[in-house]
Amino acid sequence: MEVLVLVIVLIAGIASWIFKQWMFEVKRKERRDYYRNVYLKSEAWQRKRYVVLKRDNWRCGYCGAKATQVHHTRYAKYNIGTEPIDWLISVCNSCHDNLHN
């Protein structure tokens, strides 16, 4: 009987862990989709992007070439769009591609 209880507790623990991992992935995908499909198309992001490019004199922070993109060095996990401009850096296309590969 004790073995049966231990097996049930073990199975319940594993099921709980699987559910938590699944929920984490669901929420991560929701945040990613919101970030890509809503936030990066917003006026708030366009203003912040301009401020960062201007701050960095439209130069890549890695190689010094003309910057055309803004890269997040960190992300605001739960409050997308609240990242300070200190977490952003101007980058050229080449360096941005290298950062994501």
Please, could you describe this protein's structure?
- The structure is a single chain.
- With 101 residues, this protein is mainly α.
- The chain has two domains: 1-37; 43-101, 2-Layer Sandwich (Wheat Germ Agglutinin (Isolectin 2), domain 1), CATH 3.30.60.20.
- The protein is 55% helix and 8% strand.
- The protein contains three helices and two strands; from the N terminus they run H-H-E-E-H.
- It has helices at residues 2-37, 43-55, 93-99; strands at residues 69-72, 88-91.
- It has a two-stranded antiparallel sheet with strand order 1-2.
- The protein is elongated, with a radius of gyration of 21 Å.
- The chain starts with a helix and ends with a helix.
Topology readout:
Blueprint: H1 2-37, H2 43-55, E1 69-72, E2 88-91, H3 93-99
Antiparallel strand pairs: 1-2
Structural descriptors:
mainly alpha; 101 residues; Wheat Germ Agglutinin (Isolectin 2), domain 1; elongated; two-stranded antiparallel ribbon; 2 strands
Can I get a quick summary?
55% of the residues lie in helices and 8% in strands. The chain has helices spanning 2-37, 43-55, 93-99, and strands spanning 69-72, 88-91.
Q: How many β-strand stretches?
A: 2
What composes the largest sheet?
Answer: 2 strands, antiparallel
Shape category = elongated
Mean pLDDT over the residues: 92
Query: Based on the structure given, which CATH architecture of the largest domain is correct?
Result: 2-Layer Sandwich
Measured distance between first and last alpha carbons: 53 Å
Instruction: Compute the number of structural domains.
Output: 2
Q: What fraction, in percent, of the residue positions are helical?
A: 55-70%
In DSSP terms (H or I, runs of 4 or more residues), the helix count works out at 3
Give the structural class.
mainly alpha
Unreliable segments of 5+ consecutive residues: none
CATH class of the largest domain: Alpha Beta
Radius of gyration using CA atoms only: 21 Å
Q: Bin the strand percentage.
A: 5-15%
Major sheet strand order: 1-2
Q: How are helices and strands ordered from N to C? A: HHEEH
CATH topology name of the largest domain, in short, is: Wheat Germ Agglutinin (Isolectin 2), domain 1
